[in-house]
Amino acid sequence: MLTIWSGLAVGAIYVLVAIGFNIMFVASDTFNFAQPQYLMLGTFVSYTIVVSLGLPLVVALVVGGVVGFAVGVLEDWIAIRPLSGTGVHGELVTTVGWSVIMQGCVLLLWGSAPHRVPGAGSDSVLTLLGGRLSVNDVVLIALAVGLSFGTHYWFTHSKLGIAGLAASEDRQAAMIRGINVNRLSTGACAVAGALLGSLGAVVGPKTFAVFTLGSILVLKAFVALAVGGFGSFKGALIGGFAVGVVEALVGRYLGTEFANLAVFGVLIGVLLLRPQGLFGQRRERVV
After folding, report:
1. Which of 7, 37, 104, 182 is least buried, going by the fewest C-beta atoms within 10 A?
2. Of 253, 246, 241, nearest to 268 (Cα)?
């Protein structure tokens, strides 16, 4: 059971990044490859606030969110908006470039050495269902579940969420109906950045603050989203947990060198049986 809990805790991180991917994808039909870097940036902001400045963890949550929000707005203005609506999906390349810029800036500011990020109750251990896990792991798993259902409810029941769905489905039709698609895109990028930036204070105690964190997470979160289904927040939850558990089980019983192979094997198997993912939907257009 210890291995399962460990896999769920790591999978929760994949879920959080996948939620950030989905917020952008659902609201603006844009896949933002820079999304995991906001989580990486948040871990360094948390380290600076809590360790270097000695301020409470709640301050790190707020500052990480503000920094993520501001960087998200800049990314939309510089890397996404100039190519939105052109039909060439050039933002796939520009968001990769923005990811490299963010990683380079963090490397210049904080260096390449990993930093330990203290968390609330990160040293406390609980025993649940025969397995032991830290309080911080429990918080990670709870956040992954809560945010998955919360964002799903937001996009299916709120006016802004439904407007985002409309803009993603048909940008031109949404504009004709009076929806400001540019503002929605900026808001989605800023909110996703703020969410992951603030969560760096929770993820940091598990991963440490290291400038390569985003590069490590991007592939695993992408696999989680592909398995669950692009655009589905419930799929992001199931896919992220599945990737984490498979990775943990294979790493324990077969060796860590087989973990990545098993994860991508699961991806290939799911895509062969259900190309749109477990909870994804096919998009059809009548011409």
Report:
1. 104
2. 246
Q: Is residue 239 part of a domain?
A: yes
Non-local CB neighbours of 282 within 8 Å, separated by 6+ positions: 276
- For 226-270, the pLDDT digits (tens) are 888 888 898 899 999 999 999 999 988 888 888 888 888 888 888
Q: Residue 118 has which token pair? A: 């203290």
Q: Find the mean pLDDT for residues 196-218.
A: 91
The CA radius of gyration of the chain, in Å to the nearest whole number, is 19
Give the tens place of pLDDT for each residue, 167-186: 777 777 777 777 777 888 88
Whether 208 maps to a domain, the answer reads yes
Q: Is residue 279 part of a domain?
A: no
Give the span between the Cα atoms of 195 and 142, in whole angstroms. Answer: 15
Q: Would you put residue 220 in left (φ > 0), alpha (ψ -120 to 50) or beta?
A: alpha
Total count of domains within the chain: 1
- The whole-angstrom separation of Cα 91 and Cα 59 is 33
Tokens of 200: 């760096």
